[in-house]
Design goal:
The complex is a heterodimer.
Chain A lengths: L1 H14 L1 H28 L11 E6 L4 H4 L12 H10 L4 E7 L3 E2 L9 E2 L2 E4 L2 H5 L4 E4 L4 H5 L4 E4 L1 H8 L8 E4 L2 E9 L11 H4 L8 E4 H6 L18 H6 L6 E5 L3 H20 L9 E5 H7 L5 H30 L2 H9 L4 H33 L6 H4 L6 H27 L3 H7 L1
Parallel strand pairs in A: 5-10, 7-9
Antiparallel strand pairs in A: 1-11, 1-12, 2-5, 2-11, 3-4, 6-9, 7-10, 8-9
Chain B lengths: L3 H8 L2 H32 L10 E8 L5 H17 L3 E7 L10 E5 L9 E7 L4 H5 L3 E4 L8 E3 L9 E5 H7 L9 E4 L2 E9 L18 E4 L1 E3 L5 E7 L4 H15 L3 E2 L6 E3 H8 L1 H35 L1 H9 L4 H38 L6 H27 L11
Parallel strand pairs in B: 4-10, 6-11, 7-9
Antiparallel strand pairs in B: 1-12, 1-13, 1-14, 2-12, 3-4, 3-8, 5-9, 7-10, 8-9
The chains are: A alpha+beta, B alpha+beta.
């Protein structure tokens, strides 16, 4: 019976070609618009590290006081001072922790024909590789001992390894960074979490994958400047040492706290630490700290661009309108066939059968709309770069799940829109229709 | 035209009436807000920077092997000499940033040293005595920097400029009486005397976060002598931009190869910089425009479809009316009026919906209040759209011959 109704439905698509075309196009446009914007929204609101997003935390410590936070609803600064980061690293109250900053590194190839170039580089601690679940292609992370001894070691990314060493195992070889040699201890697989949760502050959530990692302690010893934001509430004074000791915030910090109770304990520790700073006279205010996990942090930093939200809203409104339009057109289409329904009912078809027949017909229209929608979504995803910046646009892709979702939304929406017209069709009085012709 | 019979006829087609009205309402609500977004984005992206954009470009230079600050300063001065001597170059300068770059240094300015809160934020530009001439921004008061006032600065040095030039919006914010030149302000905790005032110089970022200090810029007599984060701003003589953009990096590499000038964005014309800075705004306007057009088309198609159906259903009644003496014009007017009544209901509901959506967006997305002009424009567009869409089916209805009344039943 299903096959027969589907056949009837497809045949009726051809009966009023103009009306059908209108419906199919409306559904296609509506679905395509919402799916295109959804693809961007999905990419930007993605959970970059699902297995650990509730175990990795960003601690924040208020070292500026209420005066400076007034405009920011009393929230502590988004980054840490070097002093606080080092103290937290020293206390080691989390199972793993790392301070980090984007380091300005230029790579000088040994091949003299190649010009120096720049890659995204970060300085952090050995713990970070395990915390962020970074997979290794060759070698491994450096050790905590090498952190302590400020060792000249580096881990490089696959892309850089391909570029410099043609993809061969480069562990043990040297790489020249900012004019100094570093011994390569590991090569990471492609590691490209999106959004780049580990440094939202300096990237707004979207950046090229990291290709160079060096120990934080080494970078600081060499007075490597941060390539990211540096925010000061007061003049830090002259020179590197003054800056390092100042209240300027520029260091990112992550702590791994696998259980809720550990997170609770860490919160207490942060407050205790701040209270201690207050007692020593550095803070002139009560402890004001935060501890946010990955999801909360991305949400707090508003990583999903406003454009993505607004355009998703508008597209959903657009889809709604297309559905209202479809309800009207389906009504016209179905009611035109009142006499046909009358004949079928008179020949013994029950209301239920009429329901099923017309809902399947609607599903056929939805299917056609979905195909049109799929094609338009394809174009839409290609055109995303017109609306969003390249770092974000390249994340929007038409993958299997989006294809399935497009078809599902198209069919479901059309069937939903068909409920009222179908109900009206089933109400047709057979006697009345038969009489009039 | 008697409206009563139309209304009683509509009562028998509740579903169709409500559907058309609902479509018009939704379309109005979306189109009004979309038009409003378009207008705001277009207004934003046509704001001037103050720079002579047609002839200016920016080179992002980076030294290799972390040279000392003195060395970096010497190399930068040599670069500036090379650039200024290049044929076709009007002038060149170096800075820590440039308008529309997307981010950069900003700082608070106070009027007294012990003030707790800043009087204003300001975008900070480093510049030498060639800065104003290169960007082609004229002084409106005071004087330019003298060559001997320019000093080099390492990234961790203290920024304590004894003198500075400010834009008019910043000067007006600090000294509303218009007598900023000669006054002392406190900038990064140190006293700075304002020696000049320029009309216009946009901030580095035009994003929302920087809107609090838009147009408020301060130029300090400094050269940033570091290996990374230095930009050469070059103004070519009229018509020479392309040639100079090609020649400049070549000349720089020839003079000193130990540097990185990125292939894809190391040398950017202001047209490119502007396009990048406003990419999101332009894209959003485009997206909203396309959605508006498709939306209107779909609504019009829906009206045509439903009205055609009605006309088909009522052929007999139309025939009867025609047989009883109604002219073709009467029939046409009937359907036009009917549509007008439905549209009026739709736009009424739609206007309320548009305002509700806008108010919600104001709280959620920091948007502005919808201005009434957009609502009125939207209402007008939709009423015209309705009338236009109904015209074809109504004309067909008016051509139904009176003889239809005699066919069957």
């Amino acid at each position: 019976m299903f096959a027969y109704y589907l056949q009837l439905g497809l045949r009726s698509l051809r009966k009023n070609p103009l009306l059908t075309l209108l419906m199919v196009l409306a559904i296609g446009c509506g679905v395509a618009a919402s799916m295109t914007t959804y693809s961007v929204f999905r990419a930007t609101s993605n959970n970059p590290i699902p297995q650990k997003s509730s175990q990795l935390y960003v601690p924040q410590i208020d070292n500026w006081g209420p005066e400076s936070n007034e405009d920011n609803k009393g929230e502590p600064p988004n980054a840490m001072t070097y002093t606080d980061a080092i103290n937290l690293m020293r206390d080691k109250r989390a199972s793993h922790q790392t301070a980090l900053f984007p380091a300005a590194m230029s790579i000088v190839p040994t091949d003299p024909s190649m010009l120096p170039f720049r890659e995204t580089s970060y300085a952090w601690y050995a713990d970070a590789f395990g915390m962020f679940d970074i997979p290794f292609l060759y070698g491994h992370a450096w050790t905590s001992g090498e952190d302590d001894s400020h060792a000249a070691v580096a881990v490089i990314g696959k892309t850089l390894n391909d570029k410099l060493f043609n993809g061969t195992n480069s562990v043990g070889k040297n790489i020249n960074l900012n004019g100094r040699d570093y011994r390569i201890v590991g090569v990471t697989e492609k590691w490209n979490p999106e959004p780049v949760f580990y440094d939202v502050i300096n990237t707004n959530g979207f950046d090229d994958p990291i290709q160079v990692f060096i120990p934080f302690t080494r970078a600081v010893e060499l007075q490597t400047t941060t390539n990211g934001n540096n925010n000061c509430n007061h003049d830090p004074g002259k020179g590197w040492d003054a800056w390092i000791r100042s209240e300027c915030v520029w260091v990112g910090f992550w702590a791994e706290l696998p259980t809720k109770s550990e997170a609770g304990a860490y919160r207490q520790y942060l407050n205790g630490y701040s209270a201690e700073q207050q007692r020593s006279g550095r803070f002139r205010w009560a402890p004001n700290t935060r501890l946010r996990n990955v999801t909360e942090w991305l949400d707090y930093q508003k990583v999903v661009p406003q454009e993505a939200k607004v355009s998703l809203m508008v597209s959903l409104g657009f889809l709604l309108l297309c559905l209202v339009n479809t309800v009207g057109l389906l009504l016209a289409k179905f009611m035109r066939r009142s006499s046909e329904i009358g004949v079928r009912r008179a020949l013994g078809a029950t209301r239920k059968e009429i329901y099923i027949q017309f809902l399947i017909e609607a599903a056929a229209i939805g299917l056609a709309g979905g195909v049109v929608g799929l094609v338009l979504t394809g174009f839409g995803v290609m055109g995303v770069s017109l609306v969003f910046e390249p770092d974000i646009a390249k994340l929007a892709t038409l993958d299997v799940s989006l294809v399935l979702l497009t078809m599902l939304v198209a069919v479901l929406a059309t069937v939903l829109a068909a409920f009222y017209p179908t109900w009206r069709a089933a109400q047709v009085q057979p006697a009345w229709q038969l009489k009039s012709n | 035209m008697d409206i009563k019979p139309i209304l009683s006829a509509l009562r028998r087609h509740k579903a169709g009436t409500v559907l058309i009205a609902l479509q018009i309402a939704l379309t109005l609500a979306i189109v009004c807000n979309a038009l409003f977004i378009i207008q705001q984005r277009l207004a934003h992206l046509s704001e001037p920077t103050g720079v002579d954009e047609a002839n200016t470009f920016v080179i992002t230079n980076e030294w290799v092997g972390s040279p000392s600050s003195q060395r970096a300063d010497a190399m930068m001065r040599e670069d500036l000499r090379v650039l200024r001597e290049l044929p076709g170059v009007a002038d060149a300068t170096s800075s820590n940033s440039f308008p529309l770059r997307g981010g950069g240094w900003d700082d608070g300015i106070k009027l007294t040293p012990d003030q707790v809160k800043d009087t204003s934020g300001a975008a900070v530009y480093f510049g030498d005595d060639h800065f104003l001439n290169t960007l082609d921004i004229p002084l409106i008061a005071g004087r330019n920097f003298r060559p001997e006032e320019i000093t080099a600065m390492d990234v961790r040095d203290r920024l304590a400029p004894p003198v500075a030039i400010v834009t008019k919006p910043l000067a007006d914010k600090l000294f509303p009486n218009g007598d900023a030149v000669g006054k002392t302000v406190y900038f990064v905790g140190n006293p700075t005397t304002i020696i000049g005032e320029v009309e216009l110089l946009q901030s580095q970022s035009v994003e929302r976060w920087a809107s609090a200090f838009a147009w408020r810029s301060i130029i300090v007599p400094k050269r940033l002598a570091v290996s990374l984060g230095v930009f050469y701003i070059v103004r070519a003589q009229p018509g020479q931009l392309d040639a100079v953009m090609r020649a400049a990096p070549e000349a720089l590499f020839k003079s000193n190869p130990r540097r990185i000038i990125n292939d894809d964005d190391g040398v950017q014309s202001y047209a490119t910089i502007r396009a990048k800075a406003y990419e999101g705004d332009r894209g959003m306007a485009l997206l909203m425009g396309v959605i508006c057009l498709v939306l209107l088309a779909i609504t019009a198609a829906g009206i045509v479809g439903l009205t055609s159906f009605w006309v088909g259903q009522r052929r007999k009644q139309i025939g009867v009316r025609r047989a009883l003496g109604a002219t073709q014009k009467d029939i046409l007017r009937y359907f036009m009026t009917e549509n007008f009544l439905i549209s009026c209901g739709g736009v009424l509901f739609g206007a309320l919906l548009a305002i509700a959506i806008n108010l919600w967006m104001v709280t959620r997305f920091e948007m502005h209040r919808l201005s009434l002009a957009y609502l009125l424009a939207g209402v007008l567009i939709l009423l015209l759209l309705g009338q236009g869409a109904v015209l074809a089916p109504a004309l067909r209805a008016s051509r139904v011959p009176p003889v239809e009344a005699t066919r069957s039943v």
